[in-house]
Amino acid sequence: MEVIKSRKITWRALGILVIFLLFIAGVFGRFVYIQAAKEVQDEDLQALIEQRWSHSHAIEAKRGSILDREGNAVAEEVASYSLIAILNQDYSSHVSDPAGTAEAIAGVLELDAASLTERLDRDDLYQVEIPGARYLSVEQRDEIEALELDGITFRKDPRRFYPNQTFASHIIGYTERDMSEARMGLEASLDEYLSEEDGRITYQRDGEGRRLAGGDNIIDPARNGYDVQLTIDHKIQMVLEQALTQVDEDYSPERMIGIVADPKTGEILAMSNRPSFNPNEYESITNYTNFAVSSRFEPGSTIKTFSLAAAIEEGVYDGDELYQSGTYQIGPDRIPDHNAGQGWGEITFDEGFLRSSNVAFSKLALEKLDPDTLFEYIDAFGFREPTGIDLPQEASSAVADFRPIDAATTAFGQGSAVTPIQQVQAATAIANGGQMMKPYVVDSIIDPETGEAVQKTEPEIAGSPISEQTASSVLELMERVVSDSAGTGQPYAIDGFDIAGKTGTAQINNPDGPGRLTGHGNHIYSFMGMAPADDPEVVVYVAVDRPEIQPHESGSIPVSKVFKPVMQQSLQYLNIVPQTSEEAQVVDSGTQMDNLSGKNAAAAAETLENAGLTPVVIGENDNVVSQFPAADEQVLRGEKVFLLTDSDEYTMPDFSGWSSRDVHTWANLADVALTAEGSGFVTAQSIAAGDTVSAGQHILLELGQSTEPSNADSVIEETEAEGDQEDAEDEEDDFFMD
């Protein structure tokens, strides 16, 4: 019995041992499996460990900036702050005095103190954001922090900022303030380049949250958005904006368009519309359309420039040939000249161009060119196809070529609709020796990390519709449109510069019924100008739609109030100096200018006075940093010599009796924006003599009849000629069907 009992104990022990060994093997096997697979019940143990011992946070990237041609930001990401109020009393710093805190914040941010008190006097919330206190500037944050209010803290919220406000707004467009979505303009069309990609840094830490010295650091670097540099010239754009704003206030037109281009390259130097908007306040936008690119309308007589070029190029134009102005019959249809069909008797075709005769261009289209040839030139000048400008939503044209009369009406600017940018592109062919340049606004796209361009726009020839000789002939006639007593462009003359241009007055379809709008001012008035006339460096197109003008005023007045300051200051910003009678009289025996840079301003002024010159010192500091005329140039006795000192503020001189040339020279050296209305000599100024002005400030001057007898008669004659011409221009291009 004992032996049997002993065997049972042995077998039991062996069984328990086997079970124990199997358990150990199972546990060991599980450990081996876990070690190899790093997974338990579909949970990734490696990830859990890394999550417990690792920490990561985002590295914020910046959206790319949009820059003008000089590299100044016109759209950028800036730091901003949202105000947070801690209400929970368990927190060491909380709002303990809701009324007092509300009163203090309201005084800084101009909020309603009562509503703010109600917001802060809640015990059911841990913290609250303050309505109207989001996206605060650094200055606003600092001003509130200086109040040392309990429970008030800030959260950093980067935002999109447009420092120049209403500045090329339809070109730039806008994003939501938090940059979550790009809405229009280049902000939207180039979003793939401007958009940023946040990075991330991951590191290991101990149980106290401290970074482990030997731990792994994984850095996924952030990628900032690319910067976009434009062809827009800041100074020219500002002059255009100011001129459009002033005319908008004075004449309340339905819309306005202004474009400034370099005809040698196709670069757009300025572009704006009215109505416009401030992209920092995009909730108040009323007009989302960039009329310069996305709107088409009958151009009026500006198109006659290209009809003329076609006739000259084809060898069928004889400027001295006579024709009977007044009316022109095409089957049952009658085309009148813009003076109610009265015409000017038998005149030459050259005079017909100067007077903007519809009859002259109907004859050219139907009798000289023939319709098929005319439309070939319409194609060659790019009026059938969009220009391809690098702006979104460019509109296409609508060219009427179904009936014989369509050629006539298209030749003088009615019946067919084109876009302003198509007209500017076509004008580059006239200004650029026959080579038509494709317009563009994006100069380059730049990697901000390296400063190198990842994309660069080069000037592109869009076509060569005419020869250099034809372009020169057209320019000569366009210059006469402005300078000749018979020309419709006299209101656009600028003292000291030869301007070539063509006026236009287009009818508008009645939106409420058949036919066209009638009545004084119910037209689109425009002017296409370029200068200097012998070799244009700048093309300016301005259109004003239905301005509220007085019965005695013509549509040329509001257009000229945009064109003249923009063209004049564009030329001077581009260092194209006016040619005056004084300059023509400079001879070898004149005084040669010394280099005065770096010299004491008072001593330099005394030297100039001793030489019989008139020094004008700009600024109060001692050292001369720039001068005009430049060193080695010839100057006449008594001529003004401008000396700029290294100063940020200047004393306003008394401009009374100064010439347009002199005041613009002073303004350019002082970096002050200047708008001069009228012609002749300064009669009034918006900032009084003796007041302090600084760079970037705007001055308005009125020019009028000189007090000098030698100039009085010429100014009076010019004024009378303008008045006579404006009376005639009001009805220009009215087209009636019998």
From TrEMBL:
This is serine-type D-Ala-D-Ala carboxypeptidase. Residues 715-738 have a biased composition (Acidic residues). Residues 590-647, 648-705 form the PASTA domain. GO terms for biological process: cell wall organization; peptidoglycan biosynthetic process. InterPro entries: Beta-lactam/transpept, Beta-lactam/transpept-like, PASTA_dom, PBP_dimer, PBP_dimer_sf, PCN-bd_Tpept. Pfam families: PASTA, PBP_dimer, Transpeptidase. Keywords: Membrane. It is found in: Membrane. Residues 703-738 are annotated as: Disordered. It comes from the Bacteria. Residues 704-713 have a biased composition (Polar residues). GO terms for molecular function: penicillin binding; serine-type D-Ala-D-Ala carboxypeptidase activity. GO terms for cellular component: plasma membrane. Pathway: Cell wall biogenesis; peptidoglycan biosynthesis. PROSITE patterns: PASTA. SUPFAM superfamilies: beta-lactamase/transpeptidase-like, Penicillin binding protein dimerisation domain, Penicillin-binding protein 2x (pbp-2x), c-terminal domain. The keyword Glycoprotein does not apply. It catalyses: Preferential cleavage: (Ac)2-L-Lys-D-Ala-|-D-Ala. Also transpeptidation of peptidyl-alanyl moieties that are N-acyl substituents of D-alanine. Belongs to the transpeptidase family.
